[in-house]
Write a structure and sequence with these properties.
GO terms for molecular function: steroid dehydrogenase activity, acting on the CH-CH group of donors. By secondary structure, this protein is α+β, with helices and mostly antiparallel strands. The chain is built from 18 helices and 20 strands. Strands 1, 2, 5, 6, 7, 8, 19 and 20 form an 8-stranded mixed β-sheet that branches.
Length: 556
């Protein structure tokens, strides 16, 4: 095959080379099929968003959990997933089935399959989305967040290697700077795709690239898989699809994904005959901070917080139970949107930031990404904040570090939007919380949950600071962090059956068309329902990509 044709015929065409696309390509190539992968970005971006991720994966009753004394089970995870998802629509028929299938995968085959591909895991399991409601409500009942050894690049590497090996054998063709603008449809079946050839670019990974058109292309395919991602880099589209249940959309947001995550392929796929569902379900964070060293426009980083920081709204009022750091992402987002302001605050101590602040993303965790044990021991168990966290304390626009509460409040008020902060309310909230910490008994639910969290060895070891008074000089200096809404994931997308076949509005499969990854709501058009349990986005790409690749190959 010519490496750069204007017209091409292939067995399986894959639109989007993120994790789901790489997995699908590897599966189809392993079945002996000719595969062509197209993406609108330069090849430096092979692996897509997954490369930038922290590498969190959701497993059920894993060896890592058992070694830490965590008693997990399929039944408990099923209870948590469905309590979290809140499926309540006619459109949730396939998402429910995907959820059942994915839970089986996470419980049985997923970990062993990844281990066979050389993927390893950090031995301490994280506890994300802790919930704080009743047993049938949202949240993880136990820690399930398994960090890939090597983070996002570590999990991409195995699947990228398989695709590039197949490329060397002539089975796979990778075409960068190809933007699909339409699916080719013949007699109701999708038979390929066409679009624009964009100008070559030598931009580094994640950097926004031009959309200058220098040509056109057309590819005929027996099967086409759409794995083009979501909408998080397109703030206009995020606002357009923002649901009323989450309040009004923010006027200002920062981006947790590169600009190429623009959602453009979703409309193209819909015009090709597929049905889009659950577009109003989305997953954005409220612990976003402006990146002092940005890669893409409005580049933000999410804080993965431990449970000790005091969370205040823009006026200085403490958030209600159970909206504590790390407990309920969408519940907190909905609450904060009702305040009328686009930002909120963490108030904490040096002792808390040293133990509890981790920044999301492969580039913010050089110890785990680089598989550097010595750096890991120093950064996670040594004194002082981890290097990337210290860099934000020193250079980040959203960080205020002071020795006294009065100076801290003055620094907070000096930041943009800080003038609405009630200084006396902030002081009262911090002092009241500190009075509660002096006793073994407390009515402060956050302190009670903090003490409960430290019963888990993983939290006590590397994620949760010993309870202390924030205003204790020995724990200082004091720190405030201004937090922004950070766009991230689409939870809805292209409706698919359990073979990853895209479905038409009437429910019948669109011949020749498949979807995987975030473009398909990580399976079925919304496997998470309304909320995610964390560690489930990469896993959804793996699972749906594997199914799409195998199904497309079997149909060719």
């Amino acid at each position: 095959m010519s490496p750069d044709p204007a017209r091409l015929t292939t067995d399986v065409l894959i639109v989007g080379w993120g994790l789901a696309g790489l997995v699908a390509a590897g599966e189809a190539a392993a079945a002996g099929k000719r595969v062509t992968i197209v993406d609108q970005e330069p090849r430096t971006n092979l692996g897509g968003q997954a490369w930038w991720s922290f590498g969190g994966l959701f497993f059920i009753d894993s060896p890592e959990q058992r070694r830490l004394g965590i008693h997990d089970s399929f039944e408990l995870a099923h209870q948590d997933w469905f309590g979290n998802a809140g499926f309540d629509r006619e459109e949730d028929t396939w998402p429910r089935r995907w959820a059942e299938a994915y839970l089986q995968f996470a419980h049985r085959e997923k970990r062993a399959w990844l281990r066979e591909k050389g993927v390893g895991f950090f031995p301490v399991v994280g506890w994300a989305e802790r919930g704080g409601y009743t047993a049938l409500g949202p949240g993880n009942s136990v820690p399930r967040f398994h960090i890939t050894w090597g983070t996002g690049p570590g999990i991409v590497a195995s699947f990228r290697r398989a695709v590039e090996d197949a490329e060397a054998r002539g089975l796979v063709t990778i075409l960068p700077r190809r933007r699909v603008t339409r699916l080719l449809v013949q007699d109701g079946a999708v038979v390929g795709a066409a679009g624009d050839v964009l100008a070559p670019s030598g931009a580094a990974r994640g950097v926004a690239t031009s959309r200058e058109i220098v040509g056109a292309f057309e590819i005929s395919a027996a099967a086409t898989i759409v794995s083009s991602g979501g909408i998080g880099g397109n703030h206009e589209l995020v606002r357009r699809q923002w649901p009323a249940r989450l309040g009004t959309p923010p006027e200002t947001m920062i981006s947790g994904v590169p600009a190429y995550v623009d959602g453009s392929m979703l409309e193209v796929t819909e015009h090709g005959g597929a049905r889009l569902i659950n577009g109003d379900r989305m997953w954005h964070y409220v612990e976003g901070i402006q990146n002092w060293d940005p890669v893409w426009p409005d580049h933000g980083i999410r804080i993965l917080p431990g449970p000790s920081s005091i969370w205040l709204d823009a006026t200085g009022k403490r958030l209600p139970v159970p909206l504590f750091p790390g407990y309920d992402t969408l519940g907190t987002l909905a609450h904060l949107r009702a305040t009328g302001y686009d930002h909120s605050w963490f108030v904490l101590s040096r002792q808390i930031i040293e133990k509890e602040f981790t920044l999301s993303g492969s580039e913010q965790n050089p110890d785990l990404t680089g598989k550097d044990v010595q750096l890991l021991l120093k950064s996670r168990l040594g004194k002082g904040a981890a290097g990337p966290v210290q860099a934000f304390m020193d250079r980040g626009a959203d960080f205020v570090v002071r020795d006294s509460i009065d100076d801290l409040i003055a620094g907070m008020r000096a930041l943009p939007g800080g003038d609405v902060l009630d200084a006396e309310r902030v002081r009262r909230e911090v002092e009241a919380r500190d009075r509660e910490i002096d006793n073994d008994f407390t009515k402060d639910a956050q302190i009670a949950m903090l003490r409960s969290a430290r019963a888990f060895r993983g939290d006590r070891l590397i994620r949760t600071a010993a309870p202390h008074r924030i205003l204790d000089p020995k724990a200082g200096p004091l720190i405030a962090v201004k937090l922004h809404v950070l766009t991230r994931k689409s939870l809805g997308g292209i409706e698919t059956d359990l073979d990853a076949r895209a479905l038409a509005p009437g429910g019948a499969p669109v011949p020749g068309l498949y979807a995987a990854g975030e473009a398909s709501g990580f399976g079925g058009g919304g496997v998470h329902g309304y909320r995610a349990l964390e560690g489930t986005f990469l896993g959804g790409c793996l699972f749906s990509g594997r199914i799409a690749g195998r199904s497309a190959a079997a149909a060719v």
